[in-house]
Design a protein that fits this description.
mainly alpha, 2 domains, 117 residues
Length: 117
C-alpha cells in the first residue's frame, strides 16, 4: 500500500500534503459542513434567500397597509364618500344628468398601464 502511495507522490508532488492526517480531517470537516450537515452551507443560502424574499414582501404589505389606512381615514369625511361614489361608480343625484366623455388617448394610457401591471 505504501509503495502505491509513494509512487503517486513521486509522480504528483502536490499530493504530498494529503498524507497528513490533519489535512484529511480538515477535508472531511469541510465536506461535512458544506454538503452533509443538517445546517449545511447550501441549506443556509436557500433559507437566506427565502428570508430576503419574505422581508421584501413584508415591506410591500406594510406600505399597502399605510395606503389603506390613509384611504380609510379619508372615507370618514362625507364629501369624500360622495366624490368617490361619483367617480368610481358613476352615481348621481336624482336631479342630475351624467355625461361620460371617453377620450381615446386616455383609453390608450389605461391599457398601457394595465399591461404593465
Amino acid at each position: 500500500m505504501k509503495n502505491w502511495y509513494q509512487n503517486l507522490v513521486a509522480n504528483y508532488p502536490f499530493l504530498r500534503f494529503l498524507g497528513s492526517r490533519y489535512t484529511l480531517v480538515l477535508i472531511f470537516f469541510i465536506v461535512w459542513m458544506l454538503f452533509l450537515d443538517n445546517y449545511s452551507y447550501f441549506d443556509h443560502r436557500i433559507l437566506d434567500k427565502e428570508i430576503d424574499e419574505l422581508e421584501s414582501n413584508k415591506e410591500y404589505y406594510q406600505e399597502e397597509i399605510t395606503k389603506d389606512e390613509k384611504s380609510i381615514k379619508e372615507m370618514n369625511y362625507p364629501g369624500y364618500i360622495e366624490r368617490y361614489a361619483r367617480e368610481k361608480y358613476y352615481m348621481k343625484r336624482d336631479s342630475e344628468d351624467i355625461y361620460i366623455i371617453d377620450i381615446e388617448e386616455d383609453r390608450k394610457k389605461d391599457s398601457i398601464e394595465g399591461a404593465k401591471l
